Amino acid sequence: MKREKKRGVPVASGPAGFLSFFLSFALIAFLGGPAYPLAVGAALLVHEAAHFMTAGALGVPLSSVRIGAWGARTAFDYSAVSAGREIAVLVSGPAASIAAAFAVIKTPLTDVPGGVYFVLSSFALGAVNLLPVRGLDGGAILSAAVGRFVLPDRAWRICRAVSRTFAFLFWGLAAAAQAAGFSWSLLLLSLYFLVRAW
Fold this sequence. Notes:
The chain has 198 residues and is mainly alpha-helical. It is built from seven helices and four strands, in the order ββααββααααα.
């Protein structure tokens, strides 16, 4: 994938990243209507902006920005900062997402097209990202916390085991929910977790 440097930060600019990003939002628009991708985009923006602002306030440097099917993802260089600062940056995204959902839910913004989608997307983005699965904020939080007490190799094995166990449990619950007639989205999310956990 081709990478460009913008203000010293690598930005993923390969056609596959941008194509998957736009295709995922086109699918969201097809399934939920034209207001839905705007609401999801706003929820993603709040989440990533919280990571970015917290990192800036704590002096954690931004290392890269990646664009793909799941939106934009910021990555930070935690090598020279404490585990406490790393965890604060990681928690800030999900916390901002959940706070934004609760802030908007009791306002007239829910009557605006896409307002309810923003609330649901923000809450889901915050809650899902707190799960202890590799590739999510929760998995990175677990890794940073465990890494404070054990050597890196052991921390990696512990986090991998927790991530895989949780992914399998979530898959089982999602399969049971699907059998009971719930949405396919939980089952698809559980498959994503299984891929990330491996």
